[in-house]
Amino acid sequence: MNAEGTWWQWVIGVALAALFLGFAIRAGRRLRFLVDTPTSKAKGVFIGQVELAGRATISEPVTSYLAEAATVWYRFSVEEEWERWETETYTDSKGKTQTRTVRKTGWRTVAHGGEEPPFFVQDDTGAVLIRPSGATVEPVTLFSETVGRGDALYFGKGPADEIADSNHRRRFSED
Predict the structure, then answer these.
(1) Which of 2, 32, 165, 166 is the most exposed place for a label (fewest CB within 10 A)?
(2) Nearest to 172 by CA among 152, 158, 151, 156
(3) Beta bridge partners of 79
(4) pLDDT for the residue numbered 67
(5) Is 83 left (phi over 0), alpha (psi -120 to 50) or beta?
(6) Residue 162: Cβ within 10 Å count
(7) β-bridge partners, 112
(8) Coil, strand, or helix at residue 68?
(9) 10 Å Cβ neighbour count for 130?
């Protein structure tokens, strides 16, 4: 190809570069906004995007599903590992159609849940009511365990049915 036949490729390239530069600038501004958000005290909190630090309190704590611990908020998930062999067709470097058998593995979520009741964040200046639905919560991992089928946890806290191609391992996690 000559230089005259590729002018449209330059136009598309410049347009894409400008588009990605715009996305990068927007992402940078959002990151700067989040980094510059100050941590407020309860007494001086305002409406809008704020970060609070303090102790979470609730009048009636909820009991988490896996760890069975008293807490103000929790989420849990149960994942099951699967493994299967699949035959796939591909074209080799000589243009010939070939088939091969490949091993595929992964984890599939088989159960999840949690509770998000309103709670208070309390510091030395007072307390603020938090309604966590829709908020970003930075939780601590409370429970994390991977077990086989012989473990009581496998069916005790997980579903009674196994998924197709299960290799009989489940991963339980709770924040």
Answers:
(1) 2
(2) 158
(3) 109, 171
(4) 92
(5) beta
(6) 17
(7) 77
(8) coil
(9) 19
Whole-angstrom Cα distance, residue 94 to residue 96? Answer: 6
What's the Cα-to-Cα distance from 135 to each of 62, 68, 118, 139, 142, rounded to whole Å? 18, 24, 11, 12, 20
What parts of the chain have a pLDDT lower than 70?
1-5, 34
Side chain identity, residue 77? S
pLDDT computed for residue 153 by the predictor:
92
Q: CA 128 to CA 96: how far, in whole Å?
A: 68
pLDDT value at residue 145: 94
Residues in CB range of 106: below 8 A, 6 or more apart: 81, 82
Closest CA to 40 of 123, 151, 145: 123
pLDDT at position 53: 78
The structure's pTM equals 0.68
Segment 57-66 long-range contacts (CB within 8 Å, at least 24 positions apart): 57/119, 57/120, 57/121, 57/122, 57/127, 58/117, 58/119, 58/120, 62/115, 62/117, 64/142, 64/143, 64/174, 65/113, 65/114, 65/157, 65/174, 66/142, 66/143, 66/157, 66/172, 66/173, 66/174
